Amino acid sequence: MSLPEDEERLLPLAQRWPRASKFLLSGCAATVAELATFPLDLTKTRLQMQGEAALARLGDSARESAPYRGMVRTALGIVQEEGFLKLWQGVTPAIYRHIVYSGGRMVTYEHLREVVFGKSEDKHYPLWKSVIGGMMAGVVGQFLANPTDLVKVQMQMEGKRKLEGKPLRFRGVHHAFAKILSEGGIRGLWAGWVPNIQRAALVNMGDLTTYDTVKHYLVLNTPLEDNIMTHGLSSLCSGLVASILGTPADVIKSRIMNQPRDKQGRGLLYKSSTDCLIQAVQGEGFMSLYKGFLPSWLRMEDTLLHKDCDL
């Protein structure tokens, strides 16, 4: 039953436009979280690129000259060699990406939950519907955000290129979008989208299944109540599972996005995500697919603590 127009105008904005308000709140929360945890994301990307075997085909000596560093040494190395503020290099497209991804995922998930799947007669929303809806929503959100993810990854590697004596690719965020668009067209902005949406689907699957399962187990089988402690423990477990499932696709995605390209925007190192996977395992070993795992997990914990606000 709809309210009269005069009464509707007196309602708070959050009640008049609930989805728009939730989108804005989600975007604000995503921005704050992105700024706070971005150094972990930058460190993760740098670790994922270390020891890239495919560079040897181009005669790039960076793979042999750069010693392997762990998370802490990589972060300290960035501060010492490039400057403290370089820990936030690429944060602007990262904020764009987080807003687009979180908003797109939230709107899609709510649409699927309310219109496509619907709740059962007892008003309960089954776990399997939550998992499928979360995976589909994550895929849609990640696909929409792929251009911003592409620019973010490439800008995160600009400091490393400068240290290696290579020319910088971009003057700023908007120049990066314009250059990629001019060289590769619209299609170029979606480079790496296949492993990107694979990662999103795997992360959302691991997150939702583990989070709900652990939370229900703790509430039903331990003295813990449905409070911040329960949510924190559930997020810790779900973040671990999501990182285990999603890190290999994340490594492949980052390498495809950062690879050098010809004048037509075609990659010079990898023909596809499968080719990138094979080259990484053959040239660096299976565990190369888990480079950057620790900062990825730590960063995901902060993100998953806000899951009840987003979904």
Please give a structural write-up.
The chain has 14 helices and no strands. It is mainly alpha-helical. It is globular, with a radius of gyration of 21 Å. The protein starts with a helix and ends with a helix. The mean pLDDT is 85.
Q: Quick one: overall form?
A: globular
Overall pLDDT: 85
Low-confidence stretches: none
Q: State the helix count.
A: 14
Give the DSSP E fraction (strand runs of 2 or more residues): under 5%
Structural class: mainly alpha
* Strand and helix order: HHHHHHHHHHHHHH
Terminal-residue CA separation: 26 Å
Q: What does the radius of gyration come to?
A: 21 Å
Biggest sheet character? none
Number of strands: 0
**Helix share, percent:** over 70%
What is the topological layout?
Elements: H1 5-10, H2 13-16, H3 18-49, H4 62-65, H5 71-82, H6 91-117, H7 127-156, H8 158-163, H9 173-188, H10 193-221, H11 228-258, H12 273-284, H13 293-304, H14 307-310
Helix pairs in contact: 3-6, 3-13, 6-7, 7-9, 7-10, 10-11, 11-13
